[in-house]
Structures are given as C-alpha cells and as structure tokens.
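assembly run, all chains below
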Amino acid sequence: MVPAVLATLLLLVPLVAMVAAADWQALPGHLTSPAAIDALRLSLVTSTVAIVFCLLLGLPLAWLLARVDFRGRGAVRALVTVPLVLPPVVAGVALRSAFGRSGVIGGPLLEWTGFAFPFTTYGVVLAHVFVSMPFVVIAIEGALRSADPRYDEAAATLGATRWTTFRRVTVPLALPGVVAGTVLGWARSLGEFGATITFNGNYPGTTQTMPTLIYVTRQSDQAAAISLSLLMLLVSVGILVALRDHWLGTP
Amino acid sequence: MSAAPARPLVADLRVADRVDAAFTAEPGEVLAVIGPNGAGKSSLLHAVAGLVDVEGSARLGDTDLLTLPVRERRIGLVFQGQLLFPHLSAVDNVAFGLRSRGEGRARAEAVARDWLERFGIADLADRKPRELSGGQAQRVAIARALATEPDVLLLDEPFTGLDVSVQMALRIELGRHLRDFPGIALLVTHDAIDALTLADKVLVLDEGRVAQVGPPAEVAAEPRTPHVARLVGLNLVPDGDDLMAFTPDAVVVSLQEPEGSTRLRWHGPIATLAPHGDAVRLLVHASPDLLADLTPAAATELELVPGREVWLSAKATAVSRYAARR
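ok done. output:
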C-alpha cells in the first residue's frame, strides 16, 4: 500500500509542483516570444515530417515482420527495438558516425552532393525518424498480427493484388494500431532531445526544437522554461486523452 | 466482364495428409461435396481457390488453375463464417471484387447494388457487417462472390450457424441463384438436404478420398459410406463385396432371437431411444450400429429402454443390395 502511494506521489508531485510554480501573468509573453514560436513551429514541423517518413518506411516493415516468414526476421525485430532502449545521446553519436560530415554515409554524400545532415533541419528530422521508428513499427506490427489473415485471403479470392489488399483491407483493419503507433511516435519525436542536440546542436530557427529551447532557457530564465514546459505537458496530456480508448479505461 | 465460357473443371488434387481426390464438374453444374468432419471438404475447396498448398491439377478448359496466383483464378469463395470486411459497408463488400479487377467506383457500386437487390437486401446496402443478421450477412457474402462473375463458385458450408428457418429460406434463394449461374459451383455441406435440393451431382469424401460420385437420388438410395447412410437415414450393412441398405421402418424389433434361416438379423443393446415423427427411433449398438423405427405402442409393449438387449431383423424384400465399389 505505502509503496504504491509513494510511487503515485513520485509521479504526480513534480508535475503539480511545476504547475504551481508557473508564472501565469508572464506565461502568454513567454509562449509568444520569437524564440518560443520558432521552436514550437520547428518542433511541430519536424515531428510531423518525421512521422510521415516513419509511416512510409515503417508500415511496410511492420507488414513484413507480421506477415512474411523470412530468414532473420527475429534479428530484424530485435534491431527495431534497439532505439527504444538506446540512450538518446548514444543515438546522436551513432547518427554522427553514419551521417556526419565524415561518416560512412555522410562522407560520400557530402562529396557527391555537397549536402550534409548535421546542424540542419533535415538532420533533426533524421534523428526524429531514428528514435520514433520503433514505436510505429512495434505498434503496427502488433495490430497486424492480431488482424485475421483470412481477410487477406478473402481479398485475394476477389482478385485483389497484394498492394490493393494491403491498402484496402490490411491497413484499415489494423487502423487502431496504426493510429496509436503514429501518435506515440509523434509524441516521442516531439519530446526528442538527446539525439537531436548531439547530432544537430542547438541553432534557433533550424535545429532548436522545444525541448532544446527549454533546456537552454532554464539556465537563464527559470520562469520562461516552466511556461514552455507547461505547453509540452498540455500536449502530452492531450495525447493521452486522444489514446485513452486504446490503453486506458479498460484494465 | 464477360460471362464465364462453358468449360468443364477437371481436377485431381492432392493436399498433404488431407485430400487425394479427382473429380469433374460441367458448366452450370452444382457439385455438392459431403462427408464427415475432417474428411477434407474445406481443404478441397481451399485447394481450388489456392489458399492451401496442393499438388496435381485443376483444369478449366486449357487453363490449370493451380498454376495461377489466387487473384487470377476467377473464383468466388463464400467462406465459412462469411469473412465480410468489417470496415466496409455491404455494398462496398460486394463491390470489392469488381473494384479489385479494375472496375470504376461508380460502375462497381451500381453492379453491387444490383446484386443486393437480387438478394432482396438493397435497403441494407450502407450497413456495416456487424449491423447485419446472420442470414443477411450470408446473402451479402454470396452476392460478393457472385458479383465478379466467377468461373467457379466455391461455397463452404453456407448455412452453418444460421437459424433453421433462415437456413431453409436461404437454401431456396441460393437454389434460384445457382440455377441462373452459368459457371461451376462446388458446395461443401454436411447437410443431406443441401446435397439433395441444390446439387446436380454429389461427391462423397471420406478421409480425403472420393468414396462415391453420382446424382443425389442415386447417392441417397445407394450410399457407400456409413456417413452418407446416416445423413439420409438409412441402415447400411456390408456383406462381402456388396452393401445392403434398408430403411429403419423395415427393421423388426424383438426380444427373442427371430426364427428362420435369414442372415438378416443382428443383436445388441439399445443405445438411444427417441421420438421420430410418429414413430420411436432406436439406435442399436449391433455390428454395425443400426436404426429401427417402431410404433410407440410396440415400444411400450416390449418395455424398451436404453441398455436393453434386442434382436433386429429385416425382410429381404425391403433390403436393397448393390456393389460396394463400382
């Protein structure tokens, strides 16, 4: 009983304390400062673009993992979960090694095209895709696994190609999982800090997202950092409310 | 889409551990596949559809269906349990096959509505499958399979799980659609009524092999497997290379061993005893199991109860005798 209460308090008190410490008078000003608006816009844009890429790449991968029995499937599935447990800062270092200006892919890329990911908005999206992909793939794979494959067979007997079946039957039937994975991935991306700042630094307007802005603001202006944090808290709670039918409510 | 050309289906199918069966079906013909559970009936259908691994061939004219991918086989499969797409309305379910085969949305939907109309459920077009009763959903499932005008229509236990009254109505309705259907229909069923009312030809499957093929009346009159005999309510007794079939009401029940030299007598305990129409029907554990009908008065007089040993005999004139294998 006591540990349970302690656990609940441990989760609750910091959030309540943060709300209590908010300077409500100054809050509108904090949230409408040019730096805040830039960071918020960048966060929304990069997270959204990242989740689109996660879906484009992750949906087929989830389908493959759920429906096709290929050699090395277990290894691929394990690989997909790595970013979940990898410290984000390590993800940033790893991305540097691959896509940095002298990285395995980044080096040749820079040589041939003159383009490099680090310290650009593209780099932010890349880091977001890396950390969010597992959420999308795992949630969708789970949904595809629980969907009855006989519906796919029914579609095939009606003359549907694999692609038509995927588009018109498989994905719609797995839609709750797809939505859950998308929202979770988007939320993870929105809160992404370690990999982003390690890979891209912290340039206002190009790589400074909300979490990095909060981090640097806190060093000079605690009240502004709290205001920005409240906004992120609001978004998080909003996501929970949106997903409550999926995980909460039904124990 | 063009109407199915008149080509017979000549099949020789082998599904590992399940089916080893050869059969033919003519265009416009309804071939009922009957047999006990586990005889391989569904496997046979799924083999034609391409949903299980199969060896052999299934020639439709010059084409071997087994060499084609599922979606190119021009088959319509009505699944056990329907498998209507739960996220699509009735009309979209029926239109699915047409759309998959390249028909435009408007045209596909018009054809689909027309099919729903033919099944008398046009008013349910916009309902989702979960909002349909069992009989309605089955009509949608059959319409969905027929809408693509398949060469071969495969029906897997289409009446299973429906109320008896719904079954009868749907059976009559399906019979009408099957008469108009120019292609080949394979109907898997465990119900003798389906085979007798809907089929032009009956294929009896037993442990994956073809035990008997013939017109329904012939199969019903001279069954070659105990399963079919039971389905049509006949006693079936092997006798050398012959089989003997006789109706339960041709059986005489007595407590003493019948006199005379007839070989047509058996002995065993009563397993069950139940009303059957105006009569009382006994199931007797003789070798083999036999059915006997007698009047309630006679049953009372003989004091028949389950477990009681009785003698059964049949008049030779009431027994039909035929070769076990043809």
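The mean pLDDT of chain B is 90.

Chain B touches chain A through 24 residues (CB under 8 Å).

not gonna interpret more than that til we talk
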